[in-house]
């Protein structure tokens, strides 16, 4: 009698305290909602960057410069903490290079964009040439796709290189905006999918909780009926006897 009802009371107390599955489901759903909201912001920023590629290029350069500065300060702090070891001077050199590069990028974002655009064009060219030559020499099962990737990389590198330095105004901005766009779409997909999964699990847990409460009520009713039957048996009078009690001396002559 006390087993199911005590368990049901414990579940009710846990739910009232906010520690039940429903509360955890709401927290997870809220977290996935924030992920979807952040993804939406990234998608909007990516679309705006694709429209205003020049602004996106300068913004990416400034962000890159500040990241280098912050990384240099963190490396310098680690070097100071590790003074007296063999890695102290190496940490100081790395921190100094990061700080110097960050200052240069922040003070000259246009020149930095031109240099990085030239570097990206050379990477596209070398990558495309290596893919083309490798696919012709190896002749593997994915030869067609490798040839297509190599031709695309070679063509993109030539286009960027022929339009340099004017291409530095939009190439890095386009890449940066596309990265924001795809990252935002990924976060939106994770947020929406996570909210759906959490809602499905919460519905199943609620249904199971309803079934458990129904079983607890049924068990309580059966236990109450059993107690009433026991009480009726205790209150019922004993069986009547036909023979009356004999007085002492009735059987004596």
Descriptive account of the structure:
With 253 residues, the chain is mainly alpha-helical. Helices cover 83% and strands 0% of the residues. It is built from 7 helices and no strands. The protein has helices spanning 2-17, 21-51, 53-81, 88-107, 109-138, 143-162, 171-235. Helix 1 packs antiparallel against helix 7 and helix 3 packs antiparallel against helix 4. The longest helix is centred in the C-terminal third of the chain and has 65 residues, at 171-235. The chain is extended. The protein starts with a helix and ends in an 18-residue tail after the last helix.
Helical fraction equals over 70%
Largest sheet at a glance? none
The stretches of 5 or more residues where confidence is low (pLDDT under 50) are none
State the helix count: 7
Order of helices and strands: HHHHHHH
End-to-end separation:
61 Å
Strand content: under 5%
Mean of the pLDDT scores?
75
Task: Give a quick precis of the structure.
The chain is mainly α and 253 residues long.
What are the main properties of this structure?
mainly alpha; 7 helices
Layout: helices, strands, pairs:
Elements lengths: L1 H16 L3 H31 L1 H29 L6 H20 L1 H30 L4 H20 L8 H65 L18
Helix pairs in contact: 1-7, 2-3, 2-7, 3-4, 3-5, 3-7, 5-6
């Amino acid at each position: 009698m006390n087993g199911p009802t005590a368990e049901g009371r414990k579940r009710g107390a846990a739910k009232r305290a906010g520690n039940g599955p429903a509360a955890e489901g709401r927290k997870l759903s809220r977290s996935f909602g924030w992920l979807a909201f952040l993804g939406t912001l990234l998608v909007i920023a990516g679309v705006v960057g694709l429209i205003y590629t020049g602004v996106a290029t300068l913004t990416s350069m400034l962000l890159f410069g500040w990241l280098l500065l912050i990384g240099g300060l963190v490396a310098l702090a680690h070097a100071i903490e590790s003074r007296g070891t063999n890695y102290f001077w190496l940490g100081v050199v790395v921190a100094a290079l990061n700080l110097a590069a960050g200052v240069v990028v922040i003070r000259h974002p246009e020149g930095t964009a031109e240099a990085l655009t030239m570097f990206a064009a050379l990477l596209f060219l070398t990558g495309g040439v290596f893919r083309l030559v490798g696919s012709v020499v190896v002749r593997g099962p994915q030869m067609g796709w490798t040839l297509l990737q190599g031709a695309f990389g070679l063509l993109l590198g030539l286009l960027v290189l022929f339009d340099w330095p004017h291409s530095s105004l939009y190439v890095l901005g386009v890449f940066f905006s596309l990265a924001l766009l795809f990252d935002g779409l990924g976060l939106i997909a994770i947020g929406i999918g996570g909210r759906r999964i959490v809602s499905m699990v919460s519905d199943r847990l609620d249904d199971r909780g309803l079934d458990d409460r129904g079983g607890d009520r049924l068990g309580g009713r059966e236990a109450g009926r059993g107690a009433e039957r026991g009480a009726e048996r205790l209150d019922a009078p004993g069986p009547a006897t036909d023979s009356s009690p004999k007085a002492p001396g009735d059987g004596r002559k």
